[in-house]
Amino acid sequence: SLPEALAAREPMLLLAVTEFVPNSAAFAYFTAGALRRNISSDVLPRRFPLQLRTKSMGAFSPQLQEHYPDLPMELHLSARRQPLFSCRPDALHGTLFGSAEAFVVLPNATRVPAFLLNIDANVTGKLTITGHRLRGTVKLTGGSPVPQVKKLETLLKIGLWLFGVPWANSEYCPHPVP
């Protein structure tokens, strides 16, 4: 309890966040158009399990490889609506309304639309401080039973693990907590 922790004089961080904070931030980012990201194969690290080429994206759209053999692709991610968040004692819960539009990049740099996925996801996020570093876990809930969407969901989780948490650590905790 709080009085016992104060009596023990242990270093402690108390953080209180209401739903107003994440929802206001989501509104500001969405209104400013900041919830958009274009991803091409040159942005992804080589260790990423899926490269943005028609050959590897054929799992999501089998006819893609037939029509455009082994060409580069771009993925345009965006929020269709403002994300909604709710604070609960155990975690921050949110609903994301996204879209992922894939394009094939032809040799003359023309972009041909390949497919569009509207992805609405319920997420649960928990922040912890471990080893003087800010850590986070995100869990997607209410996923789709469609196998192709499950594969994409898994890739999004890997992307968050490879990019999201390290970015949060460097952006919001650039120096170890003393």
UniProtKB/TrEMBL annotation:
Any one cellular-component term (Gene Ontology): extracellular space
One term of GO molecular function: lipopolysaccharide binding
Subcellular location: Secreted
Alphabetized UniProt keyword annotations: Antibiotic, Antimicrobial, Disulfide bond, Glycoprotein, Immunity, Innate immunity, Secreted, Signal
InterPro entries according to UniProt: Bactericidal_perm-incr_a/b_dom, BPI/LBP/Plunc, Lipid-bd_serum_glycop_C
GO biological-process terms attached to the record: defense response to Gram-negative bacterium; innate immune response; lipopolysaccharide-mediated signaling pathway
Record keyword Plastid present: no
Manganese found in the keyword field: no
Domain called Lipid-binding serum glycoprotein C-terminal: residue spans: 7-177
Gene3D superfamilies the UniProt entry points to: Bactericidal permeability-increasing protein, domain 2 (3.15.20.10)
Written domain comment of the UniProt record: The N- and C-terminal barrels adopt an identical fold despite having only 13% of conserved residues.
Function, as annotated: The cytotoxic action of BPI is limited to many species of Gram-negative bacteria; this specificity may be explained by a strong affinity of the very basic N-terminal half for the negatively charged lipopolysaccharides that are unique to the Gram-negative bacterial outer envelope.
Subunit structure, as described in the record: Monomer. Homodimer; disulfide-linked.
Name of the protein this chain belongs to: Bactericidal permeability-increasing protein
